Fold each of these.
Amino acid sequence: MSTKETTTPIAHPSTQSFLSHQMTACYTIAYKESVRIVRIWKMTVVPPIVTVFLFSVVFGQIIGGKIGGISGVSYLQFIIPGLIMNIVINESFNNNASSIMIDKYNKSIESMVTAPVHELTILFGYFAGCVVRVLMAGAISSVLVFWLAGIMVQHWFLFTYTILITCALFSFLGFINGLYATRFDEIPTIPTFILTPLSFFGGVFYDITTLPEPWRTISWYNPIVYIVDTFRYSTIGVTHHDITESLIVVTAITSGLFLLSYCLLRTGYGLKN
Amino acid sequence: MEQTVIDAPISVSKVSKTYKDGFRAVKNVSFDIRKGDFTVLLGLNGAGKTSLISMITGLNKISSGVIQIFGDDITRSPYRAKSHMAIMPQEINFNLFSKISDVLIFHGGYYGISPEKVMQRARPLLKKARLLKKIDQPVSSLSGGMKRMLMLIRCLIQNPKLLILDEPTANLDIEIRKTIWEILRAEHKKGMTTVLTTHNLEEAQLLCTNVLILHHGEIVLDRSIEDAIQSLEEKFYSVSFESKITQKQLHGFSSYHAEMREDGKASFCIRSDQDIGHLIYKLHLAGHKIAHVAPSSHQLEQLLHQATL
Ligand SMILES: Nc1ncnc2c1ncn2[C@@H]1O[C@H](COP(=O)(O)OP(=O)(O)OP(=O)(O)O)[C@@H](O)[C@H]1O
Ligand SMILES: [Mg+2]
């Protein structure tokens, strides 16, 4: 059979501008994720609201009443920013890790892999999906506990940026976990052995500057410390670290994970044989 | 009218696939598929058909060699190459909890097609497949055959220039198979280039113009079906009659290995020194009124058998 032949050019979707095609694809991924999040709302939206409410009541109101103030605010006010950040961290991570794993399991991801969707489009689409999940789970809880503790957001720009950058960081981490996992039991590994310990030692419940050495120094190697500290500053104006430096650390880690996910996607890691 | 030169829908050059466990599923394969061809890719189970197709569609990495789709390298310019083709994979690959309409909308979105356009293109096809009333139901509520129909519809909403189907009609009843054949024939008539793998040789003979045979990962035959059959030493024809005929009545045709089949048609074997015209004449003389004569799928079976000996 010959390779060349003559024919008249025909109009085809591929002549559609690359950018507008990728925007549609990105929107589609975000929409697909949103549909899934809404479909399983009992798993995606309700638990974080219940958890943050229980933590606020038990630790903030009951135990916090005995502890008194910390860094010039009530204990309840002190822990709430960290609790909200925990929602952002867990929901972003879990969304991508489980979504990618499920789509790999039922092979529906093949339809995206064989489609002309750019790797950046895929990453941004899944990130947007995480933002939707964080908003759905986080907005209701935030309004509830901010009202409970009488918190007014102090720095809106910082507040929004911290949520988005944290969401991005853990969405990329979850994405990498989803690519790497070949079985469902490989999904909880990172949350159980890495995220939960880092969150607990991330200064959500205590002021890390009051820790004895070497724990205080070690704590600054925990990225969640920077996230919680920045977010706490944006909400109640309390900080233990230079905010610019915290932002640089968090943004740098996010960029690193972004690059890693992009490279993994380009090589087809976990998706192509 | 001004004419421009475009490249082959599929051009495969010295392509091999070695899996992680070291198994070589495809070995140094080269072939081209021309615009408008309807090619069947035949081969025994495990011959490497799906492995080859997965490389063409970008789902498998290529171990060595080059694959171009309408001139675009699938590895180096994947976005352009992928935008030309639609793939119906061998295995069902839906999220079973998704609604039927969402399956189509998500898929269309990956190709930059708006939801409105997707539904506009899908509606007549869904209607033909009797799925229109079910579009708000989850995919899990569909039967196996309906899921395969949906996979085909998902491909067609792309309006692809090249359609690749990996065993589209496996395990389907004759009615759904016929619907799928009808759709494929219509698309082919409109100019779509199609590649199909199947173990149903009747289907292959009915639909396809070209045949590629893959054996142990190597191409052992690459021709038009007509040429390939011409080259056979013996050719089988399937003849149906206007009235019912028994094996006994075919007694005088033993030199043609005449045999009544379960479907009521008779099968005749014509050697290279015999002539089909002569057979028809003899049947006529014997008083058997012929309704239809067609090359039997035995011929492809024979081709496959010879090529994979
Ligand atoms: N991911 C994989 N890892 C290792 N070996 C594989 C993998 N996928 C397929 N193979 C092997 O490659 C060979 C070809 O498989 P392939 O699925 O391409 O065959 P096929 O021609 O499509 O068969 P069938 O007609 O049964 O669908 C088989 O021996 C199979 O075991
Ligand atoms: Mg196969």
Amino acid sequence: MKNLICIECPIGCGLQAEKNGEQWIIKGNRCRKGEQFAINELTDPRRSVCSTVKTIFKEVPRLSVRTDGEVPLKSIFEVMEQINRVILERPVHIGEVIIENVCNTGINVIATSDLIYLLEAK
Amino acid sequence: MSNYDVVVLGGGPAGLAAALASHGKGMNTLIIEREHRLGGILKQCIHDGFGLVRFKEKLTGPEYAHRFIEQVQAQDIPVLLNTYVVQVDKSEAGFELTVVNRQNGIEKIEAKALIMATGCRERTARQVFINGTRPAGVYTAGTAQHLVNLEGYLPGKKCVILGSGDIGLIMARRLTLEGAQVLGVYEAKSTPSGLSRNIVQCLHDFNIPLHLSTTITRVFGDDRVEAVEIAQVDENMRPIAGTEQVIECDTVILSVGLIPENEIAEMLGIQMDAATRGPVVDQHFMTSVPGVFSCGNSLHVNDLVDYVSESGEIAGASAAQYVRETRVRELVEIKKDNQDFLYVVPQHININTSNQQVILYFRSRDIRENMRVTIKSGDNVLFSRKYVILRPPEMERVRFQLKGDIPAGRPIEITMEPAEDKGVAQ
Ligand SMILES: Cc1cc2nc3c(=O)[nH]c(=O)nc-3n(C[C@H](O)[C@H](O)[C@H](O)COP(=O)(O)OP(=O)(O)OC[C@H]3O[C@@H](n4cnc5c(N)ncnc54)[C@H](O)[C@@H]3O)c2cc1C
Ligand code: SF4
């Protein structure tokens, strides 16, 4: 049996996962998301990555970004390396794609702050 | 001098929600913010997990804030940025604010009602007991977060974190992602104060150790931090002799708690609650001074921004109601046992109201299992629910209606008792 903690919401249910043949039996989850989380966690753990990219605008030297989906846990540092290579030279809106298909994960890195608003407000 | 119905102090999630609610009820509303952009602390909280309750999405802090900023802009709610409130006085119309702004200098603003949404500040090194020198390299978690996320400046290479609050855990991950080494998180209590999910995704994912019942007792270094001494502590938080250990590091991050910011509320002589360190309020989040409302982290420190926004909405709608029709309040105290409850907000109920709904937030004093929480006025039960577990780091929110007989002069009681049976919660 494996013990896990569901990270899908702030409740953080303690989960027990047991293998029955090829199937995982999950207990302890208060909702459906917990079951899916446990199965993913045991077979292909994934996380979102939230970070910042450099910009050329000295009033707003960093812009926050995140992956628009989850990338494999083991690729987080590779994704970070790609993110840290970016130097943003144009003002972007929130939600705009900054890196397409980062590290061939099929996931994009998108802006989570609105650079245009931030520059205007200054 | 400009005149408004409602002036909101603070442009974080609480202030934004309050202004939208007040404007939505037809009030001429102004937001005053001392920083150069709206969004409050959320601007630097670039991690995700915000808005699960409200939007059923895992947003980052800036994205959550942006949804409200967009609405404020779309509705043309006036905002004064880079503006400090230096004084608040009672006036005939309500309140006279003296504000300082880089462009306009000193200005007077009149408001019929005021909403305090000034957020909170962090406990600093001075407020926790650490011996030794005071070299550079000691930061609060929020300051470190500001430096890394907004300025792009990494505060150190080898960090230790004191306190297991969520901001400290989030920063442990953030510093690791940016290439710093986080040697460990030290928590004096025997249980972590942050959410379990943050222990998993911020510490376990990156093999960062969490040391419970352990604290930093000394900081070494002349100009810059060179090392810290850690020691285990007993149940009374006293260091245990012989357990000391020296750890080399260049940075100490403090995540030891937040305190509501209420300098301006204090200027008005508003009654404060020693437990929340915010104002005493009724269910409309009106403080002891009629016409002054409080919400968000300046009312009490919240862990979920969704409830911060909710409290802003309540304060905004209530301020509008107050401006429209001022009724004399009939306040009934909410009585609690301090052995069971860390705090309860609101602290009073106004029974002379047309709005029968009450939203109440509480935290238990310690971890309790299988408890029934009941709210009643004499024999009139207003609310009763069973909780499988109550933990102080997790704020509970309850909703009930003011129905039946609730006489003035008799306190409403909130109690916590072992639940009758271990059956299904109802
Ligand atoms: C580091 C950190 C991580 C968090 N992580 C999460 C999370 O993962 N999920 C979640 O749901 N919640 C999280 N929270 C909680 C949530 O972000 C806060 O509860 C929320 O931002 C508080 O909103 P607020 O509007 O009360 O205060 P703030 O956001 O602090 O806003 C207060 C505003 O008032 C302004 N102000 C203060 N004094 C004055 C004055 N005198 N005049 C003018 N303006 C003034 C300030 O500049 C600021 O903009 C986190 C909080 C922090 C600090
Ligand atoms: S199982 Fe559901 S309720 Fe429990 S932590 Fe996961 S998402 Fe939250």
